[in-house]
Design a protein that fits this description.
The longest helix is centred in the N-terminal third of the chain and has 15 residues, at 34-48. The protein has two domains: 3-159, no CATH class; 187-271, Lipocalin (Beta Barrel). The strands form four sheets. It has an eight-stranded antiparallel barrel with strand order 10-11-12-13-14-15-16-17. The protein has a four-stranded mixed β-sheet with strand order 1-5-4-6. It has a three-stranded antiparallel β-sheet with strand order 8-7-9, with helices on both faces. β10 (191-197) and β11 (200-206) form a beta hairpin. The protein has three helices and 17 strands. The chain has 274 residues and is α+β, with helices and mostly antiparallel strands. Helix content is 16%, strand content 38%.
């Protein structure tokens, strides 16, 4: 998996947890077809800038009002992102700044987009891929496909900022594809859950296919993560694509409440919309 330049926090799903640890992965060598990927980067940048002799889609703003960007370090192979910026230059500058702030002084802009979503996927064998789409999930699937097309065997989406995401907190990740060895999920756990965390909320989305996505809207610096989830007979297990894992017991005090206990404590989540 690729390393994100900006700090990513591995977090438990309980408000009583110990301080989140920074996600650290060893730097990787550039993939074998690195030059080809650089050409892809230039092509994507051209498309996003509205060039390459491509017509502008009807109704698309001439000057998009929100921007996102990805940046990369050629020496550390680490990535950074930005979103929710009001100009292309601001998005690019912030992505580069986020990267350099963590020591990747040669971080350079990789890709940018106005009013669209970006995604970057990486594999622990060194392969990577990135793409753009109006939809976060589709951007993630396209980035995964590019990662696999260059030989990646363990590709996962590392970051997926959309231009319109609130810049006060990290962008959510798309739900991962259905796990190959999916374990049944208690149907009562399926849905989107939230828990109050001063001064905001955490959100946890559980899919019927055994995947999940977590993100914070509390301005607490807690990073987004996603992966596989199972819940059955009062026991739940979570394994994130970034290496974090947790497990414990659960109950449903009522149809709109999901009480969980794990390695970092206990908490009661409430179904969104109820």
């Amino acid at each position: 998996m690729l390393v994100i330049c900006a700090a990513i926090c591995l977090l438990p799903l309980h408000p009583t947890s110990a301080p989140a640890q920074e996600n650290e992965y060893p730097a990787m060598e550039p993939p074998p077809d690195y030059v080809e990927q650089l050409h892809e980067r230039e092509r994507n940048a051209c498309i996003n800038a509205g060039g390459c002799d491509l017509p502008v889609a009807p109704g698309r703003p001439v000057n998009p009002d929100m921007w996102a960007a990805l940046a990369m370090s050629d020496t550390t192979n680490r990535y950074a992102s930005s979103h929710g910026q009001y100009s292309k230059q601001a998005a690019m500058d912030l992505a580069v700044s986020n990267g350099r702030r963590t020591g990747s002084l040669d971080c350079k802009v990789l890709l940018w987009a106005g009013n669209q979503c970006l995604a970057l996927a990486g594999s622990r064998d060194g392969a990577s891929g990135w793409d753009v789409d109006p939809d976060r999930a589709q951007a993630g699937l396209k980035a995964m496909a590019r990662c696999r097309s260059v030989g990646g065997k363990y590709c996962v989406v590392d970051t997926a900022p959309c231009a319109g995401d609130d810049p006060r907190w990290a962008s959510p990740l798309p739900l991962p594809p259905q796990p190959a060895n999916a374990v049944p999920v208690d149907p009562r756990a399926v849905g989107t859950w939230t828990i109050l965390i001063n001064p905001g909320r955490w959100y946890w989305r559980v899919a019927r296919n055994g995947s999940y996505e977590f993100h914070s809207e509390a301005g607490d610096g807690v990073g987004s993560h996603a992966g596989t989830f199972s819940a059955r007979d009062g026991h739940w297990t979570l394994n994130a694509t970034n290496g974090y894992s947790d497990q414990g017991s659960y109950t449903f005090p009522d149809p709109g409440s999901f009480a969980t206990t794990g390695q970092h404590g206990s908490g009661t989540w409430h179904r969104v919309g109820q």
